[in-house]
Automatic annotation (TrEMBL):
It comes from the Eukaryota. Residues 172-243 form the ACT domain. This is D-3-phosphoglycerate dehydrogenase 2. PANTHER family: D-ISOMER SPECIFIC 2-HYDROXYACID DEHYDROGENASE CATALYTIC DOMAIN-CONTAINING PROTEIN-RELATED (PTHR43761:SF1), D-ISOMER SPECIFIC 2-HYDROXYACID DEHYDROGENASE FAMILY PROTEIN (AFU_ORTHOLOGUE AFUA_1G13630) (PTHR43761). Belongs to the D-isomer specific 2-hydroxyacid dehydrogenase family. It comes from Basidiobolus ranarum. It holds the Pfam family 2-Hacid_dh_C. Pathway: Amino-acid biosynthesis.
Length: 243
């Protein structure tokens, strides 16, 4: 007999593979032998799995929480495990994470039957660290060579197609500035005499990031003047020109 996979989300996106959507969390809990949690920590997800939800799960089912520690009511989960309603659980996040190695970590889940407790260090495997290093190095190279900031956490995520090496007249102007009204107008007034092939601007909080590819025929002296004029805008944080 084949295994069915169900999921529930507040945003019902297209299911992956053979996964089937549920209309509610209760429906998911009632259907599943294994329940896994994949949500952020918000006011809405605090105690998402509480006593009522635990006892809506099938008797003998299992709960896995690798998302955030406050998502599950830990004392109620311990009670459901000890009375035999749940057959087991695996948890690697807690409301209060251990501060260091050694003694001091205490949880109601310690000693519960068929329960696995692990530290939240899934990213510390050799394979994960290797991939992180490759990804970070690639992101830095793309930022240096092309200005691409995709994947940035506290900086606008901006990207344009790579500059074609055969397009010798194409330059890329990058302008990081304070996110206040009127700056984009000032920049575009300076760029107006050139043909703008592509342009994108995005902001995150107080920071805005503009990237524009220009067709330019002037020499180095005029290009330097363009750089100076854009850099002289009072709200400028940083200006770069890439060839």
């Amino acid at each position: 007999m084949g295994m069915s996979v169900y999921f529930y989300d507040v945003l019902q996106l297209m299911p992956l593979g053979t996964a089937k959507t549920c209309e509610s969390l209760d429906e998911l809990l009632e259907k599943s032998d294994f329940v896994t949690l994949h949500v952020p920590e918000t006011s809405e997800t605090k105690n998402l799995i509480d006593k009522a939800e635990l006892y809506k799960m099938r008797k003998g089912s299992y709960l896995i929480n690798a998302s955030r520690g406050t998502v599950v009511n830990i004392p109620e989960l311990a009670a459901a495990l000890r009375c035999g309603h749940l057959s087991g659980a695996a948890v690697d996040v807690y409301p209060q994470e251990p501060g260091a190695n050694g003694e001091g970590f205490v949880s109601e889940l310690q000693g519960c039957p068929n329960t696995i407790l692990t530290p939240h260090i899934g990213g510390s495997t050799e394979e994960a660290q290797s991939m992180i290093g490759i990804e970070v190095a690639g992101a830095i190279i793309k930022y240096i060579n092309y200005g691409t900031s995709l994947g940035a956490v506290n900086f606008p995520q901006v990207n344009l197609r790579a500059i074609n090496a055969n397009e010798s007249k194409i330059i890329r102007v990058i302008h990081t500035h304070h996110n206040v009204p009127g700056v984009l107008k000032e920049v575009n007034n300076i760029l107006a005499k050139h043909n703008v092939e592509k342009q994108i601007c995005d902001s995150t909080g107080d920071i805005a990031y503009l990237m524009a590819d220009l067709t330019i025929s002037e020499g180095e002296e005029d290009l330097h003047k363009l750089y100076q004029r854009i850099g002289a805008i009072p709200e400028t944080i940083m200006t770069r020109v890439l060839y």
